[in-house]
Design goal:
The protein folds into 3 domains: 158 residues, Thiamin diphosphate (ThDP)-binding fold, Pyr/PP domains (Rossmann fold, 3-Layer(aba) Sandwich); 129 residues, TPP-binding domain (Rossmann fold), CATH 3.40.50; 196 residues, 3-Layer(aba) Sandwich (Rossmann fold). The strands form 4 sheets. It has a 6-stranded parallel beta sheet with strand order 2-1-3-4-6-5, with helices on both faces. The mean pLDDT is 95. It is an alpha/beta fold. Helix 3 crosses helix 15 and helix 13 crosses helix 14. It starts with 7 loop residues before the first helix and ends in a 7-residue tail after the last helix. The protein contains 20 helices and 19 strands. Bound molecules: thiamine diphosphate, the ligand C=C(O[C@H]1C=C[C@H](C(=O)CCC(=O)O)[C@@H](C(=O)O)[C@@H]1O)C(=O)O and magnesium ion (MG). The ligand C=C(O[C@H]1C=C[C@H](C(=O)CCC(=O)O)[C@@H](C(=O)O)[C@@H]1O)C(=O)O binds next to loops. It comes from Nocardioides aromaticivorans. This is 2-succinyl-5-enolpyruvyl-6-hydroxy-3-cyclohexene-1-carboxylate synthase. Keywords: Magnesium, Manganese, Menaquinone biosynthesis, Metal-binding, Thiamine pyrophosphate, Transferase.
Length: 541
């Protein structure tokens, strides 16, 4: 049995104080018995300046909610009971590891003496997120005080909580005030290091992957280079960013590239991946958050890049890209306007167009973020249109939760939107289940529903020779009635089948969390995609 000084209640209170020192503003908790001391200590701390609380039933949802909160400026912890509850956090923790998000996991555990004895709900939680996340296995307050409050990525505190877990009397307001300290931002942590001076000369482009930040745009503008910025780069702004870069890489312009400066984590497209692997191209990579940052074979890691030229590089190079981009974008838009039915590209374009200055858009993996990459015009610098996505591992899991968390975490957001496919939406449907007292954001979730996984149609397995197995193995139609699913969770739902209906729905938000289902086709997706890709190289009729 632990001493009073290290009782479950004392350890729990010390943990809440540690969370405040760590800058944790929000705690997502899932109900349990072993973590009861933590839950009660958090309840007691909330009115005394402690973290904002969010309760979720499903720990996988809870983990992604905490991830979304942290990705949009809060710092969140997720607290679970012991056993499989902790294992349900693994997807969110892995995404945090690979995208460098400072998520805090607090897992309740039985005392070490019960490990290996067959005690109920007891497994080995020490190192459960290894090799990337170290577990601080804690049985005493003093040990907790020695845990650092920041790390490059997620932190895991495993608290050995011994009976008694629940005090005899109800807990009241905490006697001490909690001052939540401000944690430094991840990007600031990254900017340090010896600057790398870049000289003019080679035909250069800047590739801005996920979470690259504005410095990618600033470098492209200072040097006068074309900017190939993914939607969630934080750099797809200004007049150097090119909308159709992915297609242009397959043209003579792409072939003439001699140098690439990479910021953030490019994950979206094979043309960019192929560019970074070309032996005739010098690839300079700037450090980015997360483990395993981009390191294509033959690339060179550099410090924060600094333009060393007197004035911009060759303006003709940028002009060629801009001229080709404008022409190709016009051709794509004309082609999409000619389509008889609502396309996923229309859904992405309308959703992005509905994002006001100061707004937030969370994008799911698979086709939606790639559709957005093709149709989203770069936005004005300084308009603070924030686009985020879970690109650390590009999972389709936890996307609704990430969007709810990001909407709750972003201060002063003028509008919160999410865009995700139907399988992505279904994968995290438990995120729609919120208790009556839970903080609830205004969030419009747009779902291009093509009854399955369209992206596979555009990959090798979507080729005609695989038609016999495709639907069962990859298309995975489900026929789910999203309206009924939303009704079960009492979430407002609207189904649209045309762009005017979609634009009308986006222009008249319901308030709270709402779902706008846009019914689109999937059967012709491979042909649509191939036709659009052909525009870059086939002359216009
Ligand atoms: C957790 C997880 N499971 C499976 C995958 C593989 N995967 C990638 S895209 C996709 C289908 C997504 O379908 P949907 O969300 O409907 O988007 P669409 O491509 O149809 O627009 C799947 C299963 C993944 N990336 N992550
Ligand atoms: C479906 C999965 O992920 C794949 C999705 C798309 C990627 C891709 O190549 C899209 C086409 C393009 O960008 O040109 C594909 C890839 O990176 O090769 C991903 O594996 C999945 O199950 O992981
Ligand atoms: Mg789909």
């Amino acid at each position: 049995m632990s001493t009073d000084a290290d009782s479950a209640a004392a350890l729990a209170e010390a943990c809440v104080a540690w969370l405040a020192r760590a800058g944790v503003t929000d705690v997502v908790l899932a109900p349990g018995s072993r973590n009861a001391p933590l839950l009660l200590a958090l309840w007691s701390a909330a009115p005394a300046g402690g973290p904002r609380l969010h309760t979720r039933i499903d720990e996988r949802t809870a983990g992604f909610l905490a991830l979304g909160l942290t990705k949009s400026g809060a710092r969140a912890a997720v607290v679970t009971t012991s056993g499989t509850a902790v294992a349900n956090l693994h997807p969110a923790v892995l995404e945090a590891v690979h995208s460098g998000i400072d998520l805090v996991v607090v897992s309740a555990d039985r005392p070490a003496r019960l490990r290996g004895t067959g005690a109920n709900q007891t497994t080995d939680q020490v190192g459960i997120f290894s090799p990337f996340v170290t577990t601080h296995d804690l049985a005493a307050v003093a040990a907790l005080d020695a845990v650092p409050v920041t790390a490059a990525g997620p932190l895991h505190l495993n608290l050995q909580l011994d009976a008694p877990l629940v005090p005899a009397a109800p807990v009241g307001r905490a006697t001490t005030e909690f001052v939540v300290e401000t944690a430094d931002s991840r990007q600031e942590r990254l900017v340090n290091g010896e600057p790398a001076d870049l000289q003019p000369g080679p035909r250069t482009v800047v590739v801005a992957g996920d979470d690259a930040g504005p410095r990618a745009r600033q470098l492209a503008e200072a040097a006068g280079w074309p900017l190939l910025a993914e939607p969630s780069s934080g750099a797809r702004t200004g007049d150097h960013a090119l909308r159709t870069y992915r297609l242009l890489l397959g043209t003579d312009l792409g072939a003439r590239i001699e140098r690439v400066v990479v910021l953030g984590r490019p994950t979206l497209s094979r043309p960019v991946a192929r560019l970074l692997e070309r032996e005739d191209v010098e690839v300079l990579v700037v450090p980015c958050p997360g483990v395993w940052p981009p390191a294509p074979p033959g690339s060179t890691a550099i410090g924060p890049p600094r333009w060393a030229g007197d004035g911009p590089d060759d303006p003709a190079w940028l002009d060629e890209w801009r001229t080709a981009d404008r022409a190709l974008a016009r051709r794509v838009d004309r082609f999409l306007a000619e389509q008889p039915a609502l396309t996923p590209y229309d859904v992405a374009a309308a959703t992005h167009a509905a994002l006001p200055a100061g707004g937030l858009l969370v994008v799911g993996a698979s086709s939606p973020i790639r559709d957005l990459d093709l149709v989203a015009r770069p936005t004005p610098v300084g308009s603070r249109r924030k686009v985020i996505a879970n690109r650390g591992l590009a999972g389709i899991d936890g996307t609704i939760s990430t969007a709810v968390g990001a909407a709750l975490g972003r201060q002063g957001s003028t509008r919160n939107l999410a865009l995700m496919g139907d399988l992505t939406f279904l994968h995290d449907q438990t995120a729609l289940v919120l208790g009556p007292d839970e903080p609830r954001p205004d969030l419009t979730i747009v779902v291009p529903n093509d009854d399955g996984g369209a992206i596979f149609s555009m990959l090798e397995q979507g080729a005609p020779e695989h038609a016999a197995s495709f639907e069962r193995l990859f298309g995975t139609p489900h026929g789910t009635d999203l309206a009924s699913l939303c009704a079960a969770a009492r979430v407002p739902h609207l189904r649209v089948t045309s762009r005017p209906e979609l634009e009308q729905a986006l222009a008249s938000p319901n308030g709270g969390i709402e779902v706008v289902e846009a019914v689109v086709g999937r059967a012709d997706r491979r042909q649509l995609d191939a036709r659009i890709r052909s525009f870059a190289t086939d002359p216009e009729e």
